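Why this split exists: single-chain examples teach little about how molecules sit against one another. For that reason, every record in the complexes split bundles all components of an assembly together and asks for one structure covering all of them. Below is a record exactly as it appears in the raw files.
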Amino acid sequence: MKYTVGIDLGSTTTKAVVLDEDGRALGRGITNSRSNYDVACQVALSEALINSRFALVSGELGAAGLAQAERALWVAELERGFRAEQYRSQLRELASTLQRLLRRLLTRPPALAACVERILARMDEEVPALYAAGARRRSDFFRDLAGSRYLALAEQEARANGLGFDLLAGLFDKAILEVENSTVAAGRFEDHARVAVAGMAQPEPRLAAAVDRVADVELEQAGSVGTGYGRQRLPFPEGQIRSEILCHGLGAHALFPGTRTVLDIGGQDTKAIQVDERGIVTSFQMNDRCAAGCGRYLGYIADEMSLGLHELGPLACASKSPVRINSTCTVFAGAELRERLSLGEKREDILAGLHRAIILRAMSLLARSGGVHDQFTFTGGVAKNPAAVGALRRLLAENYGALAVNISEDSIYTGALGAALFALRDAQRVAS
Amino acid sequence: MSSAARPAPPEAQKDQSQLRQKQMIARHFDRLAAAPETGEKCAYTFVPGNLSELLLSFGVLPVLPEINSLQSAMRGKSAEYISIAEKQGHSEDVCTYVKSDIGMLLSGNIGPTGQRLPNPDLLLLSYTGCFTFMKWFELLREEYHCPVAMLHVPYQADGHVTPAMRQYVVEQLRRKVIPMLEQLTGRAYDEERLRECLKLSAQAEDDLVWVLHSARSVPSPIDSYFGAVYYLGPIFSSFRGTPDAVAYYRELRAEIADRVRLGKGPVTPDGEMGRERFRVVVEGPPNWTSFRQFWKMFSDEGAVAVASTYAKVGGVYDLGFRHDPDHPLETLADYCLGCYTNLSLPTRIDLLVRYLRDYQADGFLINSVKSCNSFSAGQLHILREVESRSGRPGGFIESDLVDPRYFSAANIKNRLESYFQMLEQKRPEGRA
């Protein structure tokens, strides 16, 4: 089966979207690997291809007569089992990497190896709970999931055995780089999916056959386009590289065909884009000389408050009385944040003010790009943040009146989707 | 990589006319360096509205601080000079031409050829449309304790020059500027000599305009933004009204005529440019600290600037103005009144729309520089108006004149690539 792929190499994450020959999105992959762009590209693509196979399994089940709701349940269970098995596989890789690093240490406290072993054993024991039905995971990235548990357990072990926590943490920091970038550790669809089916108490009889058939499907790449800040580093020829402005424009148009204005808040830049009725960019503006007010700003604030990035938005939404944050500089905003905290302001009120400050900068950019036209589509990682979305909706209504505001569940993949559509067009042009 | 290990960029390719210009400049700076011994008088003055012929008729040597600042940037010295000026108390927001010049002055006033520049005998503030010019010379007056001749040139707010405006400038020349030059040099005003210089100016201007108009050919044999900087050197600075300038422009015209005949594109510092893919009009001054890199961002994409407004800051000759030896003071007045930076926003918009049409351009780009409010104020308005009147897409990039801190290469490259891809996408089907 032929597919085309778009890969968006951002400053924070790398995303891939796989399309089938008819332009339907089959799978999406994302990695927060920052090692190098080639590896990030491979990891995201590999994830997107695995994800595509789940879509194919769903199609097989549909062809076998299962209703949509039933299919969704079985595919979700299959995926949960798959992810658990994939996590175990990565834990095994983490264990062997840690052991190798331990052997290389010049001075090795006697209790160290056993401590590491106990931590990994505990993490392995926790896998079923981590992937149980209804369980909430703080992140989809192995680095985050394994890291938070490893470090918490390492703290206990260090205290109990009189070891330095830094030593245990340092080992993890070195090991994780290799593990998160290993597509071997992430494993193959057929291996983990078959284990997942075998582990089900009462599997749907047609599921195993569907997995087998999908495992046999050969996915052949018919075209690829890269975009994002790292696009020049992609292992693609120049003709297969597109600006992320064009990709976000086309991606937003594909998700919401009525789109005329797109706002994308990425890790290090904010883009205000105007598109025509075909998704072709007519004008755009980007932040200049300074990245204040971009996604990284929120990352910095999350670090300052010792919170996870995904926790910021919900906390800010609890605000009853947002404070006014004046600083447009990320570092100064951090200083203002500390000052406000010391004055006894509530965290949620400060966070609400910070989110508004980001959106105010975006509003200025939108105005400079030619204003906001109906329909408006918000893309990029920050579109998943409810406080940012809330502030944006309010400011849009105040400044431009009532208009349709589109936000896709998959907003973070918009650039990769646009790239994949360009790849599909190129492939179709070559074929014809 | 250490700077010591970094390979030097390949030597820039130069035409015969460029070599001639280099020799002309070297001779001029030799004269300037020797002025304290030879007793030749020198006046510092600005490019817009420079009265080269008048100075020449008195035997006064011109020094152009703006040109020195941009040369300092091209030689990689401006960062150091700006930092020296900031230490003296000039804020970060002051025009960086001014700070680079002040820093150069405080570092021994070593000019672009490595020779010491003479102190001014006169500061000829021959154009006041830019208020920074006035402040700049106030600062220099404090340093040099020399007289200032100030020529106030009325702004063309209504888009045309009235007889009263012309008369106002002529009267200032007659009553203020000429008497000061007479006093400085001990010579009487020699109108015949001035007429001779003006005659030579008009000859050089004819050839310059032919060269600028050559960009109407497809492919364009010249780059009218980056390449034009070299072509404008003699006429914008110290050579207008000299036989040297006439010889230079005759040679340049012959070289460009050859290129037109052979169907060749422009020569860039990295050699002959490849296929012309985009024809653009550019508004705003270039960035000088990364001039070659900035140019390469265009030439790598096959983009040629076929017309630019920056090439008109020292005179909008292509609209028909020529120095007229029959009306020497009136023609100097008209010249000063007609400089690009003295034109109103509607006139600038008209000019850009005209360039887009006459030069068959695909679109236009605005480089908005932080340092220059005279240039940058209103540029977004220009962008919208020109887009709407011409139907051609505009792009917006931001940098600075000579402060390297405000040239973000990745950001600018990203915007340029996005812009060129947008042009490509908007082309009618079938056009390469």
